[in-house]
Amino acid sequence: MKQHLTFLGLESSCDDTAAAVVRVGPDGAQILSSVVAGQTELHAPFGGVVPEIAARAHAEKLDLCVEEALTESGLALRDLDGIAVTAGPGLIGGVMSGVMCAKGLAAGSGLPLIGVNHLAGHALTPRLTDDLAFPYLMLLVSGGHCQFLIAHGPEEFSRLGGTIDDAPGEAFDKTAKLLGLPQPGGPVVEAEAAQGDPKAFAFPRPLLDRPGCDMSFSGLKTALLRARDAVVAEHGGLPRQVRRDLCASFQAAVRDTLAEKSRRALAQYLALNPAQPCFAVAGGVAANKAIRAALETVSSEMGVAFTAPPLRLCTDNAAMIAFAGIERFRTGAQDGMDLTARPRWPLDQSAPALLGSGKKGAKA
Ligand code: KG4
Ligand code: ZN
Question: Which SUPFAM superfamilies does the record cross-reference, listed alphabetically (predicted)?
Fold first, then answer.
């Protein structure tokens, strides 16, 4: 196998259309370009991601993103070693747009085609950014997913636990919606929370009374709705400072829940006696500074190294897909023109299904 491998990656599983060029060599990984075209304004009038609108926008934008990513990298298709594409899990129309585009590029160029699990893209990001060695414990926390995974290899993950209903990112988005704030909710709720009192409202820390590291966030959303309605009934509206307090109290509940469940997942992981234990977080919610800080504190209390990707690699991007494609390709894997889009595609196929369904469909 060549010493250096350079892949184009495509991502279109939710509401970001992305293309990137990544090179991996003996000296580590290098992101040569990473283009992300968001669709926030297209979905804004509907208060959430509309799958049909997303699919059409991906189909329109993908080739432009590919062109931009190639130009930015200074490379042409003939300089590449392969095409990697998110083949699931995600919104089926968007995933299909990406897979069709990648198939066209692979057929036209003769390059190998590699289908990538979107969750593996997030879960392998610490290897892209920090060259982290296997195994490591990972909290993958995004708009559609929330799970603790031990990463053993590019396609080998064991799940220790996960959410049984909503994902935290989804809860942030719903909170924003309930409080009249724009989408995506995470960054806005975080900004509001910075000016609020996290103790103003006593929101539940769900499932802490039960053993294990499964989580639940849908009750939190209901608690927030009730608190908001009580405030509106009392004040005839939602005073600005109360909104900040609601955001801060909500974020503190998510933070505390993730921190305590991380403590339990880490204890389970440490019981396996890993040589150099490391805890990594990835996914859109990993961009939240309060949550990152809490997870870092738990790690240091438990004597475990902690790593979190830079913010632009926390949310959906194609650099993680190109990198995960290279990791798969190196194991000898390759897909053919029969590669299909998979709306559901759990990383740990042996783990029992978790309940619930998120904005990307059933939880993987
Ligand atoms: O990983 P991602 O880009 O897409 C999925 O695979 O879901 O994650 C997007 C999610 C959204 O729900 C967004 O509100 C949330 O991540 N998010 C945040 C923050 N930035 C993005 N949640 C909390 N705090 C943030 N700063
Ligand atoms: Zn994602």
Answer: Actin-like ATPase domain (SSF53067)
The two three-digit tokens of residue 30, written as one number: 């290098």
Residues 122-144 have pLDDT tens digits of 999 999 999 999 999 999 999 88
Determine contact, residues 92/313, Cβ cutoff 8 Å: no
Please, are residues 22 and 326 in contact by the beta-carbon 8 Å criterion?
A: yes
The pTM of this model reads 0.92
Three-state DSSP class for residue 120? helix
Binding annotation for Fe cation: 118, 122, 316
pLDDT tens for 157-180 read 999 999 999 999 999 999 999 999
- Residue 287 in contact with ligand 1 by CB distance below 6 A: yes
Strand partners, 46: none
186/173 Cα distance (integer angstroms): 6
- C-alpha 60/C-alpha 62 separation (Å) is 6
